[in-house]
Amino acid sequence: MKRFLSIITVMLVLSSFALAQDLQLPRVSQKATVMQRIGLTDVTITYSRPGVKGRTIWGDLVPYDKVWRTGANEATTIEFSTDVKVNGQAIPAGAYSLHTIPGKDEWTIILNKTAKQWGSYNYDESKDQLRFKAKPEQGPNEEWLAFSFPDVKQDSGTVQIAWEKMRVKFQIDTDTNAQALANIQKALAAGPKDWEVPYDAAQFAFTNNLAKEDAMKWVDQSISLKTTYWNLRLKADMLAQSGNKAEAIATAEKAVKLGKDNKDDAGEVAKTEKKLAEWKGASGSK
Questions:
Q1: What's the pTM value of the predicted model, to 2 decimals?
Q2: Which of 70, 120, 227, 285 is the most buried (most CB within 10 A)?
Q3: CA 248 to each of CA 214, 280, 285: distance values in angstroms, whole numbers, following the listed order
Q4: Degrees, nearest 5: CA angle 67-151-179
Q5: Looking at the predicted structure, is the pLDDT value of residue 67 above 90?
Q6: pLDDT tens per residue across span 163-188
Q7: Dihedrals phi, psi of 102, to nearest 5 degrees
Q8: Yes or no: domain 176-283 corresponds to CATH 1.10.8.100
């Protein structure tokens, strides 16, 4: 009988523990996620947001010269959908925990290969993917810790950590052009039937001054699928840039006629007419 009661007691304790594990209650430092696409790369930061609440943060609540989870609760994580460079150093795609070592005049930013961990209590320096230095700056008071991307370009983005009156920033670089060209090759290898696919490929290459010979092949492929004002105009721009004004003029004239016949965007057609007049004036054509 005693043994039976003991078994029942253990089962009740385990049952209570399981129920406690399922209990959902709000955290004081609530969870947040910020995601930014840089070119073709998604950068996702997940963290918990402690508040200042009138406390002394730096050198007190967050000690100087000690590893910090850069938030509350679980360690902050940063995930990259493609290979990137952080502070100029190559980082493979994947998820990392983001720890910091705050200092009065300099911070150490750490990307650790153990993404999921509680705080920095079990942080293992031997599993660091990257460490680098960053200079803190002063800014307006930020009550709740916040990660943001204040400056984003096609192939780079700045990450900012802001809490209280402190700001720390670091840069992420992506090889967007190489990724885009690889995507173009893959899409065109499948033999597209839509004129817009090779047109978009040629437009991207032309705008970013990439793969000029391939770009001309792609716009010709687009025209072969369907001749439109848009791909003729693009080809005219490409010919003019390469110095072939005579062929650029002939192609632009075809584009303008087709654009008017199909009642395409009148404002865009007018822009091409203006370019056409400039090219004719520069070449002495009438």
A1: 0.83
A2: 70
A3: 18, 10, 12
A4: 95
A5: yes
A6: 999 999 999 999 999 999 999 999 99
A7: -70, 140
A8: no
